[in-house]
Specification:
By secondary structure, this protein is an alpha+beta fold. It has six helices and ten strands; from the N terminus they run ββααββαββαββαββα.
């Protein structure tokens, strides 16, 4: 039968040993090893070799642009200016629908999607729809039973990173 017993993970990655409840999850995971689009320095995963190559420059470039407020450093004046905007209390961008104000135009643009009610990301398991693909991906963990976020102290696993962060407070 297709439904598995709770906790059963019959699909195992032969490269890293990670186990999966569903074949489709295992198959998707295997692409991580095949694509070679994982940064060897920080472990971040990329969709293509091109974006990985662009990312690698962050490990090699001198970060000579420092924030005078918090000390965080950046590789360009443009990136520093973007960061400095986050320290500002000024919220220059406002939503015409509800009046909500934002520091960044891109944050306002993302917010505007909440007013359209167009939910393009559909769960094939239960039919629930989402505004954002990242929310669908997190939701899918409820169906697969995967818990990719593990505590380094006690090895307890969590579906959501936020749950792991909350758990870490007990250690």
């Amino acid at each position: 039968h297709y439904r598995l017993h709770p906790g059963e993970k019959p699909f195992t990655c032969d490269k890293c040993g990670e186990k999966f409840t569903r074949y489709i999850s295992w198959k998707k995971h295997m692409k991580v090893h095949a694509d070679k689009s994982v940064c060897d320095i920080c472990g971040q995963l990329f969709k293509s070799k091109t974006t990985l190559k662009q990312h690698l420059s962050v490990h090699n470039v001198e970060r000579s642009f420092a924030c005078h407020l918090c000390g965080k450093t950046y590789t360009s004046q443009r990136n520093l200016n973007f960061h400095l905007n986050l320290h500002s209390k000024e919220k220059s961008y406002s939503c015409e629908e509800c009046g909500a104000c934002f520091k960044l135009r891109c944050t306002l643009n993302n917010h505007m999607k909440t007013h359209t009610q167009v939910r393009n990301f559909l769960c094939v398991e239960c039919g629930k729809s989402f505004l954002w693909n990242r929310n669908l991906r997190m939701h899918m963990l409820t169906h697969t039973g995967e818990k990719p976020n593990s505590c380094t102290v006690c090895s307890k696993s969590f579906s959501l990173r936020s749950s792991l962060v909350k758990h870490m407070r007990i250690h």
